[in-house]
């Protein structure tokens, strides 16, 4: 099991958080997704290796941006 | 047909707008709902008389507040 963190830009409310969680949860291997709205911190737990690009793409699919 | 306007407080993004539109659309008699996010202006068109209290309750159900 591994944990990776990202910072997401543009979320303004609980609906935004839900959208990000929903999309990132669908990434292969992901077992748990947590989002802290005030800081934009996205914490992704997984069973095995997860492609960072897949997480970034999922965040963008939700309509937000990962800060590099 | 009549049109009433309200000011809604607390909406921060398009998801918020969707929630308000969805709830207010369910109020009896309402035929059209428009929301302007930057100003919070909610415009409600209806076939017949609509109870203001029902619109206010719908906005609150969505998680926001009508400014009086």
Automatic annotation (TrEMBL), chains A, B:
It comes from the Bacteria. It holds the Pfam family HMA. The keyword Protein transport does not apply. Residues 2-67 form the HMA domain. CDD domains: HMA (cd00371). PROSITE patterns: HMA_1, HMA_2. Gene3D superfamilies: 3.30.70.100. Keywords: Metal-binding. This is Heavy-metal-associated domain-containing protein. It comes from Nonomuraea indica. The lineage of its organism: Bacteria, Bacillati, Actinomycetota, Actinomycetes, Streptosporangiales.
């Amino acid at each position: 099991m591994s944990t990776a963190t990202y910072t997401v830009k543009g979320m303004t409310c609980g609906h935004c958080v839900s959208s990000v969680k929903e999309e990132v949860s669908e990434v292969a291997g992901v077992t748990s997704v947590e989002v802290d709205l005030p800081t934009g911190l996205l914490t992704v737990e997984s069973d095995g290796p997860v492609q960072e690009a897949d997480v970034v793409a999922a965040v963008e699919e939700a309509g937000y941006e990962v800060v590099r």
